[in-house]
Write a structure and sequence with these properties.
OB fold (Dihydrolipoamide Acetyltransferase, E2P); about 40% strand; DNA-binding protein; 5-stranded mixed beta barrel; DNA binding; 4 domains; NA-bd_OB-fold; DNA-binding; 18 strands
């Protein structure tokens, strides 16, 4: 009976609580959870559960997520031996999404503050668990994105982690995919990411990139080159637009195209100058 909404009758009360009964089991109904007054014999509808202190609790304030219904739950704690604890709006009770439902790589587990799309279930021992929405359900919830979404900035929550890439649900409830080549680091489950739409597919789903646009990347790359120039005693570096791409990639960690755009920006803003066989910080 735990983890369900039931109609119970009031059997007793004291200064702090009413006590209600359902099928022979007594539940504590804290008076702070209601503005109403009840008498013995009154019927009241609410949610039954066991709190973290192992007390049977009745609350007329229904949780944000009920069995068979899905919603976003914020991760409140992470325990590698159990799973992640999520807030569904129950006083004194978080529900656990079992580690068995999470990635074998704990580094990709949800972090505190991440949001998971879950429902709740109760096992044979009457323990309430959080259960992740499967991919088929998320597809049913998702809307078809219009072609006008191309190149738009978006916010999305990570709902699936796979070897082929990261699946997300945007704030507008569009289904999206991030290929590993379109991210610097793999997001964690439930993480809120910011990206841009690089393709709208025929089925209305989105291809998303977490990498900046070329013109947005120039300042970061340029700042990195300036930092390197400042850190060498001569304030010079032996790299230029004719340098080997592999040498540039090895030293700066960026492509030759990115290097040329960054240098062009620094030349245009007067922060560096060209010298024979390289670049130098402008005095």
């Amino acid at each position: 009976m735990l983890g369900t909404v039931e109609t119970c009758f009031v059997t007793d009360q004291n200064d702090t609580s009413y006590f209600v009964q359902y099928k022979g089991r007594t539940f504590d109904f804290p008076k702070q959870l209601t503005e109403n007054s009840y008498q013995i014999g009154d019927m009241v509808k609410g949610f039954l559960y066991e709190n973290m202190d192992h007390h049977y609790i009745f609350t007329p304030i229904l949780p944000d997520i009920l069995p068979g219904q899905y919603g976003w739950a914020v991760v409140k704690d992470v325990r590698k031996d159990l799973g992640v604890f999520c807030d569904i709006g129950l006083p004194g009770k978080d529900v656990v999404v079992s580690k068995d439902l999470l990635s074998e790589m704990t580094s990709l587990w949800p972090k505190k503050g991440n949001k998971l799309l879950i429902t709740i279930t109760t096992d044979k021992e009457e323990r309430i668990w959080g259960e992740l929405a499967d991919e088929q359900l998320v597809h049913q919830l998702a809307k078809k994105a219009p072609d006008s979404m191309i190149n738009k900035d978006i916010e999305a929550t990570v709902v699936r982690l796979k070897k082929v890439g990261t699946y997300v649900l945007t704030s507008e409830f569009y289904w999206g995919f991030i290929h590993p080549s379109e991210r610097f680091n793999e997001p964690t489950l439930g993480e809120l990411i910011k990206g841009r739409v690089i393709a709208v597919k025929e089925d209305g789903s989105l291809n998303i990139s977490l990498k900046p646009r070329a013109f947005e990347a120039i300042p970061d790359d340029a700042q990195m080159i300036l930092t390197l120039l400042n850190n060498v005693p001569t304030h010079q570096l032996p790299y230029h637009d004719k340098s080997d791409p592999d040498d540039i990639k090895s030293f700066f960690g960026i492509s030759k195209g990115q290097f040329k755009r960054a240098i062009g920006h620094l030349l245009k803003t007067g922060q560096v100058i060209k010298i024979p066989n390289g670049i130098a910080l402008k005095k």
